[in-house]
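Predict the holo structure. Ligand: MU-OXO-diiron.
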Amino acid sequence: MQPTEIKKNIYWVGGVDWDIRDFHGYSTPSGTTYNAYLLTDEKTVLFDTVKKPLMGDMCAHIKKIVDLEKIDWIVVNHVEMDHSGALPEMIELIKPEKIICSANGKRALHAHFAGSEDWPIEVVKSGDEIKTGEKTVQFMETKMLHWPDSMFSYIPEDKLLISQDAFGQHWATGWRFDHQVDFGRLMHESAKYYANILLPYSSLIQKLLSTVKEMGLEIDMIAPDHGLIWKENPQAIIDAYDQWSQQACSQKAVIVYDSMWHSTADMARAIADGLQEEDIDVVVFNMMHSHRADVITEVLDSRAVILGSSTLNNHYLPRMADVITYMKGLKPQYKIGAAFGSYGWGGESVKQLEAELEEAKMEIIVPGIKVQYVPTEDDLENCRELGRTVAREIKKRPVCHK
Ligand code: FEO
C-alpha cells in the first residue's frame, strides 16, 4: 500500500487489515481498514492511529511523506483500540508537542494506557479550533458516535470532515475512494456497518445531522476511520444516515429461524411464500448457516421480524438466543413481529419468542403458530396465512416516522 493524498497536503496513511473476520461480534468477511490521516503544514498533524499490529504499515506510509519526528500533534478523534492501539508507541517514538482529544477522550486514554498521565494532552470541545499554518482544524464532539470520547475534525479550507467511525465500512480494499468501487456494494457495507455499530445511537445521529445542517457546514469530502473515503458522493452517505437514523422501514420482512428436523424450516418457507404472495420483500435466515451481523443488516430497513424455533429442552434453540440477544442490544425500532415453531411435547418456544419480541418492543400483530412434530398441509396453509397477515399489516404502515 501507498499513502494517498486525499486533499492538498492531507494524506491517508492508515493500515489495511485483510485478515480480520470478526470485529467484536460483527462478521467482517472482507476485512477492514484503519484509516489514519496526516496533515502537513507549518504544524504536522496525525489524526488517529491504527490497530497495534498495523503500526508498521502506518509508519511506512508516513515516512514516505515526512520523518516520523516531524509530527507535532496527534489528534485522537476516537479512543477505541482499533484507532489507538498504536498510540503509546507512536508517542514514545515521536514525542509530540500535543495530543488533542475531548474531555471524555482524556478520561478514556487514562483508563486504557498506563503512563498516559504524563502525556501532553490538550482537551478540546465543540467549537474549538487550532491553526496548523495555512489550515484550520475545527472540532465537534460526537458523544456515543461511537463512544463517549468520539469527535469529528473539520478542515474548512478543504471542506473535509474527518469523521472517525461515522460513515465508515468494514471493507479491506486497495482502493481509497467511493468512486473506485461498486456503489451498490459500498452502500451495502455502509448499511451493515450502521446496523451493527451505530443503530442504537440513531436518535443522536438525527440530532447530529440537524446540527450539521444548522451550522451550514460545507462538506466536500468525508474521511472516515474505516473503509472508503467519500470523495465523489458524500451526500449519498449523509442521506443514507438520515434514513437509517430515522429507522425508516420499507415493505420488507425478515424471517429468522433455527430448526431441528426441518419442520420449523418448512414453516419458515410457507410464511415467506405468504409474504411474497402479497408482494412483500422477504429475507429468510436459517441460523444454522447465517451470522447475526447479516441478520441485523437486513432488519435495519425491514418492517417485520418473524422469529421461529423448534423447542429443545423446554426452550427455543440456542442459536436463536445468540441473534436475539444481539438484536435486542442494537435496539431496532418501529418493528412488528410474529413467532412460529414446531415441537414434540413441551412446545414452549413460540411463547418464549413472543416474549422476546415484546421485550424488544416489537408489536406482535398475529398470534404465533406452533405445530407438533411435522406440519400438515393445513398447518403450512396457516403459515402462509400468517405471512399474508403480516404483509397486509406492513402495507398499512408508513415508511418514515419523522
Ligand atoms: Fe473503529 Fe469505535 O472504533
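Residues 78, 80, 82-83, 146-147, 165, 225-226 surround MU-OXO-diiron (CB under 6 Å). Residues 179 and 232 are 6 Å apart (CA to CA).
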